Amino acid sequence: MSGMSGMSGRKSTDIGTFTVRPLDPLTDAELVHRWVTHPKAAFWMMRDARLQDVEREYMRIAAHEHHHAFLGLHDGEPAFLMETYDPRYVELVGLYDPEPGDVGMHFLVAPAERPVHGFTRAVITAVMTELFADPATRRVVVEPDVSNKAVHALNEAVGFVPEREIDKPEKRALLSFCTRAQFEAARGVSV
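The chain above was modelled as a monomer; its predicted structure follows.
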């Protein structure tokens, strides 16, 4: 998403303020490396990555015209990783028929010493709010691993509807979509 310069401070009930900024592949690599290699990040598929692997991957993303990485902050502190991509060129090429306004998304919540109830749902809600803040975004596309039941439940909670399973080179994925109207309905916002 080329127009995404950062969130303007979104409140999520009593949980706090979420913002995003572009991820810096060099200065943020050590932090992100801890997150993506944590046992809870198994579905991120970087458990065995070295620091240099993480730097290289996010430098590749930073240089890519159709793939972007962001560091998410909760009350100013790093709390999640967010990636956006144009599915016409990245991740889903040839696996479905993209529509104008489709935006692909991945997110990863940092491991927490003391988890906060509702935090991950607040993060995905903040991510979706940011994606739909761009008027060009008509539909968000995700392709989580079919066995990642926790993320399927989160996706459903914010309005995603599964379409079908697809085979990607690295996994069997559940292709799912969420329109602006579906997201607003899931949040209880009248259209």
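The first strand starts at residue 10 and ends at 12.
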